[in-house]
Amino acid sequence: MTNPLFYAKILLFGEYGIIEDSQGLTVPYSFYKGTLKFSDLSSEFERKSNLSLKKYSDYLMNIELDEKFKLNIADFQKDIAGGLFFDSNIPQGYGVGSSGALVAAIFEKYSFIKYTPESISKSELKELKKVFGVLESYFHGKSSGIDPLICYMNLPILIENKENVDRVSIPKSEEGKGAIFLIDSGMTGETGPMVQIFFEKMKTEGFRKTMKEEFIRYNNACIDAFLKKEMNPFFRNLKNLSVWAYEHFKPMIPESIYKAWKKGLDTNAYYLKLCGSGGGGYILGFTKDYAKAEKMLEGYQKEVIYRF
Asked: Where do the CATH 3.30.70.890 domains begin and end in the chain?
């Protein structure tokens, strides 16, 4: 049997908001993927990966998991000694779930009880999200478990609130003029420091108020309109969301993107938002006319992820 591939993920909506109980919408992104493999560890990449798996397995030895989700650490460590590594082209620090895919791959291979994404009930999804949060917290300090869950399920997931998640079907991608796309900021972002900035901001009452009354309202309205394929209300709320982020998430917006972000708002040709925690990595773009937006964003590396 060939080892299953685990795809990257993109959080279309909900960055930072899901910490405060907003909704989130996340989709798998098959351009980037990773899988567990064996080798003689002749390349530096393979050796480094093998070593980090070894460190991770030591961490796993010391955590308690529910019987339903226990991992066979002994087999994992035996395989590491035999040259196991994670062969992945998912960029780290780009907000597309590099550690999530790794955690999903390890769970799939080493959990004593085998699950199939199709057979997991909504209540099990909730439990699994918690388990993945524990498994991924090694990489980020604190994890919601959402990234590994998406990578494991390989399906679009609607984050209803802090506790509940559900599978969701997003409208089929069509060859229209509109597009959702990624822009490469040209630098990596670190999740930890960005989340720290957010929590500092949350200490001020004014920011907490605007987060709840404006950001979460626009964010949830975007998800609702997108899933219903109502593009006019979608773009109206999206602009509000982009303006809000430009004003309140300045430290998280990579400097290389500032001007382009503002230009989109001024011309209404496209709107930008953070992809993940920001600080670097990818930025998400949305436009009704991709050809026009592409011309205006010349010089940036772009990848279309969805057409409408």
From this structure: 179-307
Give ranges for CATH 3.30.230.10 in the chain: 6-167
Give Cα separations from 281 to 20, 140, 219, 246 (angstroms). Answer: 23, 16, 21, 17
Q: How many angstroms separate the CA atoms of 223 and 220, rounded?
A: 5
Q: Is the confidence at residue 172, as pLDDT, over 80?
A: yes
Q: In the CATH scheme, what is the homologous superfamily, with its name and number, of domain 179-307? A: GHMP kinase, C-terminal domain (3.30.70.890)
**pLDDT at position 164 over 80:** yes
Contact yes or no for 190/279 (Cβ under 8 A): yes
Helix (H) or strand (E) holding 7: strand 6-13
For 302, other C-beta atoms within 10 Å of its C-beta total 18
21 dihedral zone (left: phi>0; alpha: psi -120 to 50; beta) = left
**285 and 192 in contact (C-beta within 8 Å)?**
no
pTM of the model: 0.86
C-alpha 191/C-alpha 43 separation (Å) is 28
Task: Tell me the average pLDDT across 237-259.
Answer: 96
Tokens (6 digits) for 66: 């529910």
Sheet containing 282-287, strands listed edge to edge, beginning at the edge strand earlier in sequence: 271-274, 282-287, 179-184, 302-307
Q: What is the pLDDT of residue 112?
A: 96
pLDDT higher than 90, residue 1:
no
What is the CATH topology of the domain spanning 6-167?
A: Ribosomal Protein S5; domain 2 (3.30.230)
**Helix ranges (DSSP H) in 181-303:** 191-201, 205-210, 216-228, 231-248, 258-267, 290-296
> Would you place residue 2 in the very low, low, confident or very high pLDDT band (cuts 50, 70, 90)?
low
